[in-house]
């Protein structure tokens, strides 16, 4: 049984228009749900100009990933999620051209 059913709904493959309502929770609640439900852990972190943390979580096997943005107040929201994360493939050069 899922402890955080809204997260499970957010991680389903649904059209972007259907995901208009963001899934947000206190950061630790969201981190625990990602770990418990998908075995996802933080793999990358950045800080936006306005002080929000942008984190990428991924499962060890790369089958699932979740992009989370956290406010300085500690509220985290799922920004995007998907399947088949490939940590070894960087497309920076391809996207920059």
Rg estimate, integer Å: 14 Å
Structural class: alpha+beta
Unreliable stretches (pLDDT < 50, length at least 5) are 1-19
Mean pLDDT: 80
Strand order within the widest sheet?
Answer: 1-5-4-3-2
* Oligomeric state of the chains present here: single chain
User: Fraction of residues in helices?
Assistant: 10-25%
Question: How do the helices and strands follow one another from N- to C-terminus?
Answer: HEHEEEEH
Which geometry do the CA atoms define?
A: globular
Described by strand count, sense and barrel closure, the largest sheet is: 5 strands, antiparallel
Q: For the terminal residues, how far apart are their CA atoms? A: 46 Å
Give the number of helices: 3
Task: Please report the total strand number as a whole number.
Answer: 5
Characteristic terms for this protein:
97 residues, alpha+beta, globular, disordered N terminus
Folded structure, characterized:
There is one protein chain. The protein is of the alpha+beta class and 97 residues long. Helix content is 24%, strand content 33%. It has 3 helices and 5 strands, in the order H-E-H-E-E-E-E-H. It has helices spanning 5-10, 27-38, 92-96, and strands spanning 24-26, 41-47, 53-58, 64-70, 75-83. A 5-stranded antiparallel β-sheet has the order 1-5-4-3-2, covered by helices on one side. A hairpin with a 4-residue loop joins strand 4 and strand 5. The longest helix is centred in the middle third of the chain and has 12 residues, at 27-38. The radius of gyration is 14 Å and the shape is globular. The N and C termini lie far apart (46 Å). Mean pLDDT is 80; it is low at 1-19.
């Amino acid at each position: 049984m899922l402890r955080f059913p809204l997260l499970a709904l957010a991680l389903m493959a649904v059209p972007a228009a259907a995901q208009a309502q963001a899934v947000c929770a206190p950061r630790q609640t969201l981190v625990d749900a990602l770990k418990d439900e998908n075995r996802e852990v933080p793999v990358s972190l950045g800080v936006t100009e306005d002080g929000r943390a942008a984190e990428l979580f991924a499962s060890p096997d790369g089958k699932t990933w979740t992009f989370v943005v956290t406010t300085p107040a500690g509220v985290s929201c799922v920004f995007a999620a998907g399947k088949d994360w490939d940590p070894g493939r960087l497309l920076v050069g391809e996207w920059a051209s």
